[in-house]
């Protein structure tokens, strides 16, 4: 049963990373954050951080690795979003 649980955990990790990474790559390349809701995105990023901590504390490597990757991507996109929002506010479009 432990092997099945591990396989499910790793499969979930792969799905989460490949579900999240393409959007992160597009956002990093295009710098387009117009469609990103800051509050929702911030909550998801913090959720990744908390799950990474939980994965570390439980020695659950699929949980840890997945959420370190998604938290890192979230942090990059968050910085881009903040920069875009500041530019928009300075130009009077916000």
Structural features, described:
This protein is mainly alpha-helical and 94 residues long. The chain has one domain (2-90): Up-down Bundle (Monooxygenase). 85% of the residues lie in helices and 0% in strands. It is built from 3 helices and no strands. It has helices at residues 2-30, 38-58, 61-90. Helix 1 (2-30) packs parallel to helix 3 (61-90) and helix 2 runs antiparallel to helix 3 (61-90). The model has no long low-confidence stretch (mean pLDDT 89).
List keywords for this structure.
85% helix; elongated; 94 residues; single chain; 0% strand; Monooxygenase; mainly alpha; 3 helices
Structure at a glance:
With 94 residues, the protein is an all-alpha fold. The protein has a single domain (2-90), classed as Monooxygenase, CATH 1.20.1280.290. It contains three helices and no strands.
Kindly give the count of domains: 1
Enumerate how many helices there are, as a single number.
Answer: 3
Q: Which percent bin holds the helix content? A: over 70%
Which CATH architecture would you pick? Up-down Bundle
* Unreliable spans: none
Mean pLDDT: 89
Most strands sheet: none
Distance between the termini: 54 Å
Order of helices and strands: HHH
| Count of extended strands | 0
CATH class category name = Mainly Alpha
What fraction strand? Answer: under 5%
């Amino acid at each position: 049963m432990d092997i099945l649980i591990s396989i499910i955990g790793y499969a979930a990790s792969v799905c989460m990373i490949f579900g999240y990474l393409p959007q992160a790559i597009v956002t990093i390349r295009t710098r387009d954050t117009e469609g990103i809701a800051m509050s929702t995105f911030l909550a998801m990023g913090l959720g990744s951080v908390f799950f990474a901590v939980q994965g570390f504390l439980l020695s659950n490597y699929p949980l840890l690795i997945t959420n370190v990757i998604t938290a890192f991507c979230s942090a990059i996109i968050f910085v881009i979003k903040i920069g875009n929002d500041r530019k928009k506010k300075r130009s009077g479009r916000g």
